[in-house]
Amino acid sequence: MSEPVFDKRDQLDKVAAGLLEGERIIAVYDAIGAGTGFLGLTDLRAVLQDNSFVGKRTAITSVPYGRISSVSFVADRNLLGRFASSSQIAITVGAAVHEVAFRGDDKARHAHDVILWHLTRS
């Protein structure tokens, strides 16, 4: 079993603190920009830290892969021919879309591929 990849130890610790018995962390990536603080990926779910609540409140939201309907690369129109090199993804859950911007295309690609793998393995 490989060790999880992560950007910041405190974010990894937050995801680890909420694990279910037998659940394993795949990756925890720091997010940039407004709103999302990090995206954690386990073998059961995606974990999003949402910093956009009024009054400096934060939510850590767990989304089972079975509730995610799509995952997308997000790019400016001038980059659409190179969508796989985007550093931003969008995760659709019901009517909500969660956009996550990463510190690098490789992290966005890994997060996208992990979610896509879970969506297509049924």
Mean pLDDT: 88
Model regions low in confidence, pLDDT < 50 over at least 5 residues: none
Order of helices and strands: EHEEEEEEEH
Name the beta content range.
35-45%
The separation of the N and C termini measures: 23 Å
How helical, in percent, are the residues?
A: 10-25%
Overall number of strands:
8
What would the principal axes of the Cα set say about the shape? globular
Radius of gyration: 14 Å
Topology:
Elements: E1 5-6, H1 9-17, E2 25-32, E3 36-42, E4 45-53, E5 57-64, E6 68-73, E7 88-93, E8 96-102, H2 105-120
Parallel strand pairs: 1-2
Antiparallel strand pairs: 2-3, 2-8, 3-4, 4-5, 6-7, 7-8
Keywords, please?
122 residues, alpha+beta, eight-stranded mixed β-sheet, 8 strands
Briefly characterize the structure:
The chain has 122 residues and is of the alpha+beta class.
Descriptive account of the structure:
The protein has 122 residues and is an alpha+beta fold. Helix content is 20%, strand content 43%. The protein contains 2 helices and 8 strands, in the order βαβββββββα. Strands 1, 2, 3, 4, 5, 6, 7 and 8 form an 8-stranded mixed sheet that branches. It is globular and about 45 Å long.
